[in-house]
## 1
Amino acid sequence: MGQAFLDNSLWRNIYCVLAGDSTSCAARDYSPGLLPAGMEWLAFTLAAVAIIALFVNGILGGVILLIWGERRLFGRFQSRTGPNRWGPFGLLTSVADAVKTMYKEDLVPAEADRILFNLAPILISVPALLVFSVIPIGAGTYVADLNVGVLFIMAITSLTTLAVLTAAWSSANRIAILSALRSVALLISYEIPMALALVGVIMLAGSMSLGDIVQAQGIPFILVQPLGFFVFFLAAMAEMARAPFDLTEAESELAAGYLNDYASMKFGLFFLAEFMAEISTAAIVTTLFLSGWKGFEPIPSQFWFAAKVIAVLFVIIWFRMTLPRLRVDQVLKFAWKGLFELTLINIVVTAILIAIWPQPTTAELWAMAAINWPVAIISIWGVSKLLGTPDYEKPFPESTNPVYPVDSGSIPASSVLNADSSAVVESGGDQ
Amino acid sequence: MAIRTQPVTVNLGPQHPSTHGVFRMRVMFDGEEIVDVEPIFGYLHRGSEKLAEERTYTQIVTLTDRMDYVSSMLNNQAYILAVEKLAGIEPVPRGVWLRMIASELQRVASHLVATGFLLQDLGALGTPLIYAMRERENILDMFEMLCGARITNSYLRPGGVFMDAPDEFWPALDRGLDDIIQTIDELEEYLSGNELVFSRTKGTAVITPEQLINASITGPMLRASGVDWDLRHRAPYDYYDRITFERKLHTASDNYARYWVRVQEVRESVKIIRQCVEQIEPGPVRPSFDDVPRLIRPPAGDAYVAIEGSKGELGFYLVSDGGIAPYRMHVRASSLINLTLLRDMLIGGQFGDLFVTFGSVDLNMGEVDR
Amino acid sequence: MTTVWSGSALAEAIEAFAPGSVESSAGSDVWVKPESISVVCEGLKTRPEFRFDLLSSLTAVDYIDHFEVVYHLTSLPMNASAVVKSRVGFGRIDPSIASVVPVWRGADYQEREVWDLMGIRFAGHPNHKRIMLWEGFPGHPLRKDYVTYDQSIASGASEATTLSDGGD
């Protein structure tokens, strides 16, 4: 564990400044340290606490900004202004919302299982934060570089569903249960294409460490792995239950699904976790497919990372703004009959390419991209043909036979009260 | 080994974001499949029919506004036509043209609301709804020019309308009609290329024309099943016999067809309004008080008049005993009757289709409960 | 233009297939005896000379000494309309008539509404419950003798109720 921390340049700098240890940080002379000699253990701990505080607060600040940005973008998409009253450009709207949320009455349903009901918001926020620990947000800026980083992310993100299930079960609400069942179905279905979509990336990078994957991206893997990106992006959208896969919340069907009975800051934690999941998804996509923090000098790598994350977030919000929701059976069909096949095609093609170029250089990556893109376009087209909604067999409105005969009979004029006006039957309103 | 499951009963509504008002459904689910549906309503019942018995014929116009509050002008028109038939009032031409323009604008507004909310129920998070509502806003502005009110208009009076359109109304109308066509083009583009909308709406909640007719359901729902039945054409009221328009039919009778018919009807309504604007002639907008007194006392008897409302046949049945207030007023509420087949349309379907179907039926709780 | 059946012609035509079912006719209206309403409606819907396949409206009027159930019928194939009425509940004692839901599904909610607000029973209705008001609501508000809450306070009565046949 200690070694993993020591690789982290951000942490190391804090540690060296505190401890005055110049052997770990050879770049410049740190002695004397802020702490007296022999207190390296304290420096170690303080540096760890500092970096955790930095990450957690950074993420929370990012969430606040994201909520504001999302609402502003919603406004733009819907030809209105969006929140612009509180602070410059309405930047403090989310802060005001957070304060309001905290001051709300904390209601717990009488039927609820109190322990689980209170546990669920914690359960959902911890994994949402943990995901960020392995993501390198800049050159040497990360909490830990696990050598199984990809596996860690897959494992941690699926814990969210456990929290959703706990929340739904403990609030003793049938609508919430329906929503949790949908969440579980989504997890089971989309975890497989999501994991398989990453196999190509792992094969190319030859490592599961996110740091190594970023290093391996001579060109962004989105160019080399278009199918992998396509599947992973959609599966990640489904995993975090974003439109068009927002079945668990499904405002127009389940009202708010598993969140129905939560109020005050418990709801706030769920809300935070949801947006943290959005940021973490964007961060993972950036790391795995958009070459992470890489960019050209002199712009710092952290800014590159942030810019790419914001771009991905914009696409996610764009999706949410424009697309209607799919039905449960269609979502599951899409996973098993669509994405699953695409990942298998991707794995086979990538495996063949890796067999030809075992250690791909940048030029060889471009060659792979040239082969992968036609494969991706053809296979996506094929799957969309397979799963698409068939058009009506009979074109409309040219139906030769009237479905229901109208005006096909006549009654004797002697029976008619308004006999004189019945003479104008044909002229009335006809073309 | 099969898992033993049992259906779950869930109450959806009366407070629910997608029930278009205070409507409640007791739904029995087997997993995601709908086993049984029982619509429960009455939360908005205000006793309009009873209230009408204590008001004069002119005062009741304001009550009709509040029945189907997204198509007030059409309610006004149906009621006024019933009063005119009961009291034998001959309307003045300019008043009739104006109220035809007003009611067709209202039909456009109502269809836009229906279309927008259908897409909202599909889960499109507001964007198409706001686009539709933006256009409706223009129409409401025009209503404001016509009568000073936006939603509860009370614009029509027995024999015509209560005031003439101001000069600035006509250019605004011309501009507004172009905008409506543009919005409809936008919406159709959104629809025609959107696989998600197709997969959600095509082939869901199919119902045969025979069932629809047997359940007294008319309007866009019936036309979406291929039956050429439009009261504006079959039983022309006002000056609809001087107007040519197409009745747009679809044969699929599913959610998509109902949506499609509404969108096309907006185009036809725009054509109708343009023809009205061409044919309108100067003159008084309502008969003088010598011809139609402020307190109308129709002779004893009854009259039933139905018009093509935005949601189907909208009828008013008035009984007079010779007094200044109707002895009995009954509204043939199309929204209420359109609900008759809701259960048949939903059973066997998926939960996700429930509110889509509900949106495609297009109902207004103010009219259902009255 | 929709053709409207004259009352006398319709009465004659109804008498032809259901003898003794018509009480009287005037203008466009035909009054049918309540006990034969099912037979008459079935005939009006299915017989080729009428084909009234659409029940436009079903309502009821309180005429103090009796109630009148009004059926407005439309024929899509013939583009014709007709009015059938039926007088029930003379003396305000238990007004009741056969349900036409087996003939037209569209009568379902309309009959429930008439029962709820006017208090006319429809024998054979599959779901004979109140529709707008809640079960146990005192009286039927559209009746002419219904005492509203305000009136009941003014007159000192403890609870809003009708003078006759209150509740269900």
Note: Strands of chain C lie at 3-4, 22-26, 29-32, 54-62, 67-75, 80-88, 96-98, 121-123.
## 2
Amino acid sequence: MSSALRREQNRTTGTLLIPALAVIIIFTTVPALTTLSYAFFSWDGFQRSTFAGFENFQRLFSYPYLDQLTAALRHNTIAFIVIMAFQTSFGLLLAYAMFRVKRGLRVYRVVVFLPVIFSLVVVAYLWQSLLDPYYGPINQIITGLGVPELAKPWLGDTSTALPTLMFINIWRWVGFPAIVFLAGLNAINAEYIEAARIDGASESQIFRKIMFPLLAPSLTIITVLTFIGAYEWFDLPFVIGGSNGSPAGATDTLALMFYRLSFGSIDSGANNVGVGSALGVLIFTLVGFGAAFGSALLRRREVEQ
Amino acid sequence: MIKLFASRTFFQSILIINAFIVLLPMFFLLNSSLRESNEFARTPFALARDPFWENYQRVWSEGEFGSYFINSLIITGGSLTLILVLALGAGFVLGRYSFKGNNVIFAFILTGMLVPAKLAILPLFIQLKWMNLLDSRLGLILVYTSAALPAAIFIMSGFFKSLPTDLDNAARIDGASEFKLLSKVLVPLVRPGMAIVAIYSAIPIWNDFFLPLVFLQSPEKKTLMQGLTVFFGQYASQWGVLFAGLCLAALPLVVLYLILSEQFIKGLTAGAVKG
């Protein structure tokens, strides 16, 4: 390479790379690195005051925060288990159905994935209207079917609010695992399936013995993403239940609690940046370690093609 | 069970049932947006035989909906432009030049994909306040750009890497500068990558309501998804108007999706699937 070209390339590298790096460093790296330190100071509104050691963590684990924390953690965990079980198995079923069906595949694929591109705000309000206790068509259908005692204020009742939110979440997201699994199925070497068929294996044997084991990488990705999504669950509970997780905290989550502590709320009053940051560190640790540990565990059962 | 697995009809019917579960609520939304509110309350299931377009007129002319919509367009468009320009430059340098530190910089950029933006929200809030970028559309654009850039650079450098190096040498022999080489020769060849990056970045930015909720306070700067919460309070029980607002908010991405569904699906599963 001539030295003139090298000089020009060095100049180009600078002009093209530095702006992108600067934006990432200023708006992602610096805030991410400083966030940890916030938890170790006491705060007066958004003004940092004295070094506090582990005091914020101690307060997070005592009254009144501890009760909120355990309730929120329970809701996140229920959400992870239920969403993982139903969303993943429905997603797999849809993916396998699309894999088997030859006619109309393109249309089905577009439809299956459609809710995923809808804004969660739109989805939340759409379902809130559908489930409206007085005007909502869902309760009208239930009453029309002759079982009016099953018509409930689905989102207003403490016993049904969280399951209803999980249902809305699954309706919105199921297309994502479906498309990921479909891509995984399409990546399986067709010769394996052909050979098994020639040996007289049934379709269900082919699925259980060949396809499902080879889908392990897709399953790892889906599990990890569902885990992260469930423990950082915010948008849907916030739009429907507000920052306090109404009704009566039945839909409270860790991320909602983090938001209340960080920015304050109408009911629980002024913010507490220190305790909020301590909770942020806790969520980050939980999600980070959980995701890393889970994916390491799941990777072990992945097989090479 | 075994019989069911053998029959294509079974799987066809699963997909048809799923299509109903997906499309019926959406159809209900569209249909109800074209009906007068009182009529909707009386008979929620009747078809809008005589479309009541006034709902859409009211959404657009009354209140702030129009300005929310335009703010969202400015913020999404501004972010996309910045993301594409910066990712093209950085992707070109990292994908096609071999220099000392190339791999280190690339690895550093990838760590940006691991940071959950929501949990760094407090330092970001205080930092933006200090930089005078709080309650500012530009501030929001810069934050979105920063969040989307790592993945965008990753995708673009992959596309640049896959092009033959002969192209560069031929252009250089013809006297093209490095910048000309990028803009005139290579950019037209990486358009598919740019489409994936654009789509991949546009969905979360258009749909996001968390960052505007935290960073934007002035009513005239609010974005559409953030504004919908205000709008929903204002028009409570005016069903037709509410549904028309929801339809308008969902419309841009749905149209884009129907035109570019292949790239959409590819873009969103890129990186999620190995080989």
Note: The two ends of chain B are 32 Å apart (CA to CA).
## 3
Amino acid sequence: METSAPTMPAERAAGLAPVTRFLRTETGKGWLTISPPLIYAMLLLIGPIIVIVANSFWSQDYLTIDRTFTLENYRAALTEPIYRDLLMRSLFVSVTVAFVTVILAYPVAWFVSFHGGRYKGLWLFIITVPFWSGYLLRILSWKVILGYKGVLNETLLYLGVIAEPLSSLIYNVNAVVITLAHSWAAFAILPLFVSLEKLDRSLLEAAADLGDGPVRRFLRITLPLTMPGIIAALMIVMIPTVGDYVTPKLVGGKDGVMIANAIQVQFGKASNWPLGAALAVSTMVIVSMVAGAIVLLLAGLKRLLK
Amino acid sequence: MSAAPMIDIRNVDKVFGNFRALDTLNASIGEGEFFSLLGPSGCGKTTLLRMIGGFDEPTSGEILIGGKSMAGIPPNLRPTNMVFQSYAIFPHLNVSENIAYGLKRLRLGREEEEKRVREALAQVELSELGPRMGNQLSGGQRQRVALARSLVMRPKVLLLDEPLSALDKNLREQMQVELRHLQRQIGITFVLVTHDQYEALSMSDRIAVMFAGQIAQIDSPKEIYQNPATRQVADFLGGMNFLTASELAVDGKVFRAVLPGIGAITGHLAGKAISDPASAIIGIRPERLRIVWEGETADHIVTGKVVDRNYYGEMTSLVVGIEGQSERVSVVETNDFGADDIPVGSDIAITYDRDAFIIMQG
């Protein structure tokens, strides 16, 4: 085996500055190696957040920013009925989308993991195929499916299930939920697949041996032991969907508008950065709290399944 | 062994693709019997055990438990419980919850359930560990929890898939004794899969020795060791010296042979049928050969040369070359008289117990 690097004699190392000496240790080398991407990532992560948080405590008068500290933006963001409604709707949509996506993705992940056999890789590949097309293209194809003269309405008409096209398919919250659930499916399937792959199959055999049929085995073994994957999938879907403003704009109609659309307007047409920032920060905090609550709830549920 | 078999294995075959994992197996295991399936890895012993437990179905043939055919009956509906090789302790549950896992479904009531868990914990001497999580246990503790979790279900048959192979030597020997005690105490049928011949010999009432999907011999440990049916069985269970015979004849219950360098010997077939005397082979266990020390006399003296010496602490194995014998012979002696000091290359005189020669199918 080769040594990782020539080590310096102690007497020579002693003469060096503490920083230089630190950078020559294994830990130091590790930090040195990851620092370019780390610095880059931190700047891109922390920079915008600082800008947003700072803006949220300022005020704007047409084009000039007044940098005196104020809580007025938060008052508006949290008490004005329009923002409160939009925020509640966004939370409702994102939580619904997250659960719908995970409930639909779980059987897919389960099938690939338990019955994929030699073709697991191929299955995962097939699952990602729709994501080769653009984000907008996928949303627009849902417009084609759900539209007034869309595929779904035409099919139902043809089959005689309905007499005239349904106008309730698109331009509402349901359409947003359906479209987002599809958009994020692969991102939910992957963490679920990984956690199902890690599940020791002999535990299921032991549960069967101790008298459990397939349903009980799932509830008492598979579900609690894949809970980390479920939580990860929920978060991966829920958190970004709160901030989505393209899908509501394209398929949501006026009833599907979400908080991110309001934020976008404040940063864009309305040109009120401080209010937009306060809305963004409020959303961020509330979403984090909701996410935390869901994690705690599911962790509690896991303890109950025995 | 009582009259009615607890497990009846009838003409069981298992084929995986082109591979015949089990080939027309027949065996019956009695109620309260400690039965071992012994064989090298890949011989099909675990497959057979999994079939008794319901985790695999035979390709043809059937398995009966308590007189009832188990065809198509899933593991959760069989009167068997299994201790898995990996123990399969549920990591998200603590020790008590692991043990209570199967009881939950029986709806015994809280008090009865807790009582049974307490008893099971005491039975495997883990009373203190009830609240410990499943993923915080040592190997020996996991093994005990797996055992308690199965026994608490009060099965008719307990299946053990190499339950001791992951433990270190001292713990393994201790657990062998404990398992044997436990089985006698509760009196249910144990079926143990092992590749360790000493484990099988020390624990079992009967052993089935398996090679390549077939059962070579089913017998008591003593019979299996002292009177192996085939060369393969003899070889798998401890050392065996196979001897070259210039003449070999089977006559009723007796066989006679002339062994070059050793002399003319006779022996008993001991109930065995030698179908093909031409391919039969004579053998003797190394411990049935003794060194003739200076000043001692013996009826039959065989001379040879020490080729190699292996020291095992309390005893020494000497490898001896005998003129006329194609294979070297090993002699195991305790070290009380200085067998460990005999130099390699020296001439040596050995003798044998007259009744120690065994005839086997080659």
Note: Chain B touches chain A through 25 residues (CB under 8 Å).
## 4
Amino acid sequence: MEKDRDINQFAISFKYQLLSYMRTKRFIGLVIFSLAISIIETTLTFHYEYSFLKSENSAIYMYNYLSILFSTIVVVVAAFFGGDLISTDTGTNSAYYILVQPVKRSVLFMGKYTAALISSFIIIFLYVLVGYIGSFYLYGNLTNLAGKSLLMTLLFMAGTLMLSGFLSSVFKSSTVGIISSISILLIVFPLISNVLSSLNGIDPYFLITFAGSASYLVFQKPYPAAKVVTHITTSIKTYSFNPTFYQGIEVALLYLLIFGILAILIYSRRQIEG
Amino acid sequence: MEISFNDVTKNYSKFKALDRVSFDYNKPEAIGYLGPNGAGKTTTLKVMTNLLRPSNGTVELNGINVNKHPKKALMGVGSMIETPLPYPYLKVRDALQFIGELRGVDKSTINRKIDEYFDALKLPPLENKIGKLSKGQRQRVVFAAVLIPDPDIVILDEPTSGLDPFERKIFRDFILKLKKDKLVFFSSHILTEVSETCDDVIFLNRGKVLKSGKVDEITREFNTNAVKIEFIKDIDSNMLKQLKSNYSIIGVKDRTATIKYSGKEDERADILKNVMNIAPVISYESSGSDLEEAYISILGEK
């Protein structure tokens, strides 16, 4: 077997990138951030809603726990790991170490992306894990919907990370990539989602931040309706939308595919002008 | 081993960074690539390693078009362009193993070579993180990474720029070793380094190759056949009038005079004999017979 085959080079790129990520202050900082938020959230919930929660079940607890800050944490982590995924190679002198090697840029990208996804998922999983621990503490068990939720979480993370990775291929600066990722995912998408859904009655199913909410909606029984119309008066109506579980999966996969292809194309074509 | 540039032009919007550059080298030797800042040296090396695509023309490494088939073409090539930065959170050993493994070198060979270069290149401690290294230490680590896969072609971009004399010597000695069985192509500003290590030189300015050839031939061509004399005291041109008319005085400054002659050894001896009558001589040496003279003649007036 030739050692310079794409699959081997992917594994090597992944291995060393993961090693590098694990040693960054960013990874350690986000682990601390994620744990701190989850512990504070759990402590406050237990303090103020203990008797209510005690009378419910694991699924309701997990829904309440994740619906508060889960999407925000996923977005922040994705922005920090994806926002400079490509620009560290194309916008810094790392280009002269990495891009002159006999390896396809698409292979390097896939290795880096997979390492970033695993690093991000570790952080998110720690946040979710504190929720699981809370559930065990309250009920002595964990809802069997946790697996479904975790699958959606992984896909939500993967799609969001890929969108950030794409943005990092557009901008040369890492900082601009990270800031634009946070702005788009944390401000622009939710704004569009609210304007389209509540005011105009349009289903914002195509926004990953909207689709990602399926990660905790799965804990609701029954699964909430896709469209809810509330009549305030006979002439004024408000709308609210929920992604279906499969819609969530489809949108996340589409983001992964579309922005993955675009990111690879830009990365492969990028010239290092210095 | 072969580097072949065929009529390569590189435009940055309206600016022509390379203008129909052509050359071909295909045997173990060292080639110096000389030119002032902004001449297009780094652009050439970037095009050579597929960091840039040429606007026109083709670049082949070992007969393979590097811009069409970069993976295949770069297989036998090691390069150090600008100031490469391995991922800062990797340790020195990781950074070297990363490149070695990526290029298909087996782990035992990588470790053996790391040990070898640790001494030969005076590498920093292998457990240090890249981000904590000085520029010189980082350059040596990158150079070790270039050498680990044992490439046929080594491309270096001003490898000793900004390094201390000790680090420069390491690089110079390595280039002398490498050129015995590899094609070494490097750009440099340090002419003594080029004249000591290179067999061929290319002079580039404003993206155009102005001259290329063997170092000794070019040096001879631009030899001004002059001697530089340092007297024990200050002198002026009048004091040198007693010299024969077939010598011309190029310059006189303080205690030093530079005198041009035909190049014959008896004339050189005659000058020495005569100037000793003017004032005691402290030093007497050839001037204008090095690469610097050629550099100034070729590039200075362009």
Note: The longest strand of chain B covers residues 15-25.
